[in-house]
Every structure is written in structure tokens, then in C-alpha cells.
Amino acid sequence: MGDLSPRALAALKAADAVLCEDSRTTGAMLARLGVAARLLPLHDHNEAAELPRILAKLQQGQKLALVSDAGTPLVSDPGFRLVRAAIAEALPISAIPGPNAAVMALVLSGLPPEPFLFQGFLPPRQAAREAALGRLKALEQAGLAASLIFYEAPHRLAESLADMAGAFGADRPAAVAREMTKRFEEVRRGSLNALATHYASAEARGEICIVVGPAAAEAVVGDAEVTAQLRAALDSGLSVKDAAEAVAKATGRKRRDVYREALALLGGSA
Questions:
Q1: CA–CA distance, 201 with 83 (Å, rounded to integer)
Q2: Please, which residues bridge with residue 152 across strands?
Q3: Which of 90, 144, 185, 220 is the most buried (most CB within 10 A)?
Q4: Any bridge partners for residue 149, and if so which?
Q5: Other Cβ atoms closer than 10 A to 3
Q6: Sheet holding 186-191, edge to edge
Q7: pLDDT score for 82
Q8: What do you get for the CA distance between the two ends of the chain, in Å?
Q9: What DSSP line would sit under 88-125, residue for residue?
Q10: pTM of structure
Q11: What pLDDT is stored for residue 218 in this prediction?
Q12: Given this model, what pLDDT does residue 268 score?
């Protein structure tokens, strides 16, 4: 509650209605703030169906405030389709800064803050999760060097960390942050393997963020590694041009030489 800005409070008081994920959660918050507002549900299951009704209210000049149960709307929360629809209708929109777990976790992780790549939630099933992590590893092999930020459910934390250790390496530095900005805020830092081992037996509660440090740059890259990186980049869906450029940058090779090899790997077709 202490992170709610005066501007946010003013917007809630001035709103004709407040769009929210769960009226019980938002209602309790507004009651503590002394705000009396009409609540309209907006969540993943009804956002598409509610768009025409909400847009009509905005076109009539009503002021609507959008809030999420935790964190920032749109960031792994509902609201993206509504914002896109409002922009398409040339309706005025504004955003008020507020707590964001991903950025907080990055700041407290002790890992390089820039660049970073926010991935949101990984797929819940292991096969799909491993495939998603494999695509990220392929991008790293093609030259991506950024801290990676994920959201995760407490009951999947240990297995996700283990899958990350398998994809990125057991010794990759990482941090697990939970309950950012809340009473029981906690950050645990260590290697992916150490964190996976810890949470295999330690219960994690609350909202979870995982921050994984960037891939280490290789000092010397041989021909076989260049070929492997090219294959991984092409398999990840990058075009021949983009794959060649990324691998050339990552390995220090000449772009035209890497481009020729990429064409050879594809049988000469661009």
C-alpha cells in the first residue's frame, strides 16, 4: 500500500469505474484507501468479449482506471488487448508508474541490469518449457547476452530451475526473488544448480521472479562452434541474414564468411 503514488490515488478517485481482475482483491484495496468506485471485471477470460462495452464507455467520455491484482497491468496481466483497441480507436490513454516485480528482482539480483530480456511465465508443461528454454539458448549461441527474467508459480519453481540449469548450465549465476515490495520480500542468489537443489526441499510461497545472468562470452571460437551457433540460430527461426549477423558479432568472424556458411548449411537457398 505504501507504494501507491498520490497520482494513482487521484486517478482511482476520479474514475467513473475501475477495471479489475478480481473485485474482491481490488475492492479490499479501495476500501482501505477510502475510494468508492464501481468495479468492472476484466481478466483473461472475458477481456475480448468486454472490449466493445468498455470502448463504448470511453467513447462516451467516461474515465476508466485499469488495475491488476499485483504488479503492473499488461505485464503478465490483462489489459493488452484493451490498450491496443483503445489506440486503434484513437482514444486517449495514460499509464501511472507503480510496483513491478520483474524490475525490482533485477535490481536486487546483483546480476547485470542491462540489457535484460523479460520472458514472463514459461510453459507449465516440462516438454514445452524445455523447448522454450532451448530457443533462448539458441539465441545465446547466436550472440544474445542479456540477463533473463521469468515469472514462475511456487509449485513449479524447483523443476523450472532444474530445466534452466540443463539449458543454460548448472553454474550460471541466478537469483530467485519472491514477494517483491511486500512484507515477506526475499532474494536468494546462487548458481542455477544450487538454487534448484535448495528449492527441491524448501517450500517457496508467494509471487516468484527468477533472474538468470547473461551467458559468458567465449574467448576463442573455433570453426565447429561457429557452425553450431549458426545451426542453432537458424533453427530458432532467424533469417539467414540475421543469423549470420548475430553469429559474426558473437564470434568476431567476418559477416560475409559467416553468411556464406549459413547459405551452405541451407543448401545454398536464402
A1: 42
A2: 208
A3: 144
A4: 118, 211
A5: 10
A6: 116-121, 147-152, 208-212, 173-178, 186-191
A7: 96
A8: 55
A9: HTT----------HHHHHHHHH-S--SSEEEEEEPPSS
A10: 0.78
A11: 52
A12: 57
**Angstrom distances, CA of residue 184 to CA of 161, 165, 177, 208:** 21, 26, 11, 12
Angstrom distance (rounded) from CA 33 to CA 21: 18
Other CB atoms within 10 A of residue 21 CB: 20
Amino acid at 105: A
Mean pLDDT by 10 residues, the chain (270 residues): 91 96 94 94 92 96 94 92 96 93 96 96 95 91 90 97 96 97 94 98 95 76 78 89 85 82 76
Query: How many CB atoms within 10 Å of residue 243?
Result: 27
Residues in contact with 196: Cβ distance below 8 Å, sequence separation at least 6, in sequence order: 158, 161, 162, 164, 165
- pLDDT for res 270: 47
Q: Residue 52, preceding bond cis, omega within 30 degrees?
A: no
Please state, as a whole number, how many other Cβ atoms lie within 10 Å of the Cβ of residue 187: 18
Largest CA distance in the chain: 68
Residue count of the chain: 270
Cβ-based burial of 119 (10 A; exposed 0-12, middle 13-18, buried ≥19): middle
* Burial (0-12, 13-18, 19+ Cβ within 10 Å), 163: buried
Of residues 151, 265, 156, 143, the one with CA closest to residue 215: 143
Return d(Cα 244, Cα 231) in angstroms, integer: 10
Are 244 and 255 in contact by the 8 Å Cβ rule? The answer is: yes
User: Which residue shows C-alpha cell 479489475?
Assistant: 20
